[in-house]
Amino acid sequence: MPLNTDTTRPDSTLSVIQLTDLHLLADPQAEFKGQYPWQNLVRIIERIGQNGWPDLFLLTGDLSQDESEASYRMLFDLMQSTGTAWYWLPGNHDDTTLMEQLHPIHQSVTLGQWQWLLLDSQSGSPHGELNTEQQQWLQQQLATPQAQWQAIALHHQPLLVGPERQGNSHQTSMDDDEHIGGIDSIPLRDQGWLWHTLSQYPQVRGVICGHVHQAHTICHQGLTLYTSPATSIQFASGINEFQLDSKLNPGYRQLYLTTDGRIESHVCRLS
């Protein structure tokens, strides 16, 4: 499969690639809902390497579908083979104990003039939450940044992405609302705390998340949320339910971080 991508890299930037929702299985030949997750990932990594490795890979959760040691081991070996810095954070499908046995789960990564803050939104349920300790840590990092610019990565979407509510924050009244279906029924449930907090700090330039299996760029309160296609299955957007989109191929998000605080981004897909 060739890869549809613009390989032009702006001058004086950091290149970051987001891989998300890999849903790997212990058997590398296994099928998952019509896709072959391991084969997809290998093809994507091969094509990225042909175009030139980024400065950083960020893997934003749901890395394993069966939470097997073998699936994490395969992923670890593949990422190590790139020779590129890489960091991962868990999604609702992941086993953090197995992850940390292979590779640390870091909270902060500083690269040049940029600091990435990596949040763990696991709640023990399909939806996401940020516990009090993590909220306090984040507020401290925002008040005393380690670089000129900051960006945030987490698994669950902090803004809703569905029709007629895109860009809204989760509210408690939505939890049992039968009119809110699909991936927006299991977002980051924080009553808008994260987005409200981040929007108060001008050095925060963007947020990336996984979980939605869709590509969106959503601007709200002066801050932009970037969601990414999965390297496995894709969910149909613009509808109020879970439905696979067989017309869209697996992919990832490319981000370029500039020295003056801009984020330039596009989505790349296998074709």
From TrEMBL:
Coiled coil: none
GO molecular function: hydrolase activity; metal ion binding
Calcineurin-like phosphoesterase domain mapped to chain residues: 15-214
Record-linked InterPro entries: Calcineurin-like_PHP (IPR004843), CNP_phosphodiesterase-III (IPR050884), Metallo-depent_PP-like (IPR029052)
Superkingdom classification of source: Bacteria
Keywords: Hydrolase, Iron, Metal-binding
Family: Belongs to the cyclic nucleotide phosphodiesterase class-III family.
Name of the protein: Metallophosphoesterase
Organism: Oceanospirillum sediminis
